[in-house]
Specification:
about 425 residues, alpha/beta, five-stranded mixed beta barrel, three-stranded parallel sheet, 13 helices
């Protein structure tokens, strides 16, 4: 991300970009600051310390092997060199911010000429006494066992910073500039940040699983389906906007849902399609917790400690959400039929045996209470059945729900309830 921001800043040919550093610009912050046209620092700010690092899941630094470090460092060093050449900084200073093992001296001669040199050049120039270290500045500027990090005063002295300011407003006043806008996080960005947290995604997973469970077992209400779509949109939309989800991960999830729907309503029994659908859903959702690693990292498995930490967090949220959903589903199955209004979301099977249907008055709906038809597909409990429309004189297919659980295709069924956008049937 730092490299991308640096490249974007260097493309701004019609803008003069000033990096104001109120407290510190280290790591990618230094990269972004050097990419700007000039740097202005706060009274006690810091700049530098930009070596690539690897962090473990517990936040501790991990050593990088020599080859991997060289691979990480190479594009960063080139970006720092390019920024230095563009904006008049000495490349040795820029490189010393990224790589350990580089010693940088600042020397001057009797004519007042000054330049930055490495260890070998320093030894050669100072051997005959014609060049000497610049007075009142630490010598060397950066030693071999350090990463160059400079305070405000030293940054100004070395030419890395063009000046100081107490604040961005003070800087604008110094330059006789007007502040047209201050870009702070918007409400939308705060919204995205909150819905990216583990707690929010845990809640969304539970809501999605429960609403999907209700929609598949008691279709026709519309409420459960709507809640499932909204929660799924948040589960996928937020990672897409924040760069955590890739298009193929979203495709995996939708293919998994399609396979589950096919298993529920089309394919008899529960087999390969259902298992594959569940696997695709779990893997797809898990991958939306993992950020995309920088291009060029070796291997298929995650290479960074932070990626493994994100994977671990995703597993905890996913497993916890599924366990919580199973517990909640068991509780709803037991108590929901007794809760007013909410009991309409679950089809309650009457106790005892009821083979007849009482019809107090003629019904204007079709099919009517007591009408008999035949299941076209397995009812799991949702599916399709055919009924004869006496008025039209033909047979029509209707979406129905069984109140006795699974009903095999071809079974004669009787209409028990019509209303609320659904037809409830029972084996005749």
């Amino acid at each position: 991300a730092g490299l991308e921001m640096s490249a974007m800043l260097k493309r701004q040919s019609n803008l003069h970009v000033i990096a104001y550093v109120p407290e510190k610009a280290i790591s990618a912050g230094a990269m972004i600051a050097l990419a700007c046209d000039e740097i202005v620092m706060g009274p006690s700010a810091k700049l530098g310390d930009s070596a690539p690092i690897s962090v473990s899941s517990d936040g501790a630094l991990q050593p990088l092997p020599e080859t991997e470090r060289a691979k990480f460092e190479s594009p960063i060093l080139e970006d720092f060199r390019d920024s230095a050449i563009r904006h008049g900084y000495d490349p040795l200073l820029a490189e010393a911010m990224v790589s350990v093992g580089r010693t940088v001296y600042w020397v001057e001669n009797s004519a007042g000429q000054r330049k930055f040199v490495n260890q070998a050049t320093y030894d050669k120039l100072t051997a005959d006494g014609s060049w000497k270290p610049v007075p009142d500045v630490r010598n060397p500027i950066d030693s071999a066992n350090e990463l160059l990090t400079v305070s405000t005063s030293l940054a100004v002295t070395l030419g890395l910073a063009k000046g100081t300011a107490d604040s961005a407003e003070d800087l604008a006043q110094q330059r006789n500039l007007s502040i047209l806008a201050t870009l702070l996080p918007s409400n939308g960005e705060v919204f995205l940040r909150w819905f990216s947290t583990g707690i929010a995604r845990f809640v969304l997973i539970v809501v999605f699983i429960m609403s999907l469970y209700i929609a598949l077992h008691a279709p026709g209400h519309g409420t459960a389906e709507a809640i499932a779509m909204v929660s799924l949109g948040l589960l996928l939309g937020v990672p897409l906007l924040t760069g955590y989800a890739q298009w193929w991960e979203v495709l995996m999830i939708f293919v998994g849902l399609a396979l589950l729907a096919a298993e529920m309503f089309i394919i008899p029994g529960f087999g390969l399609a259902g298992i594959s659908g569940i696997a695709l859903l779990v893997v797809g959702f898990l991958l939306t917790f993992i950020p995309k690693e920088p291009d060029g990292l070796p291997g298929i498995l995650p290479s960074l400690g932070s990626t493994w930490a994100a994977l671990q967090n995703g597993l905890v949220v996913m497993v916890g959400g599924m366990i919580c959903s199973m517990i909640l589903a068991a509780w709803l199955r037991k108590y929901l039929p007794n809760i007013p209004i909410l009991n309409r979301l679950i089809l309650a099977t009457p106790t005892g045996v009821t083979d007849s249907v009482s019809v107090s008055q003629p019904s204007a709906t079709w099919p009517a209470l007591g009408d008999r038809g035949r299941a076209m597909t397995d009812l799991k409990p949702g599916g399709s059945a055919t009924f004869v429309d006496q008025a039209a004189g033909d047979e029509r297919v209707v979406s129905v729900v069984s109140d006795r659980g699974f009903v095999a295709a071809g079974t004669l069924v009787t209409v028990q309830e019509v209303g609320g956008g659904r037809v409830v049937v029972r084996p005749a």
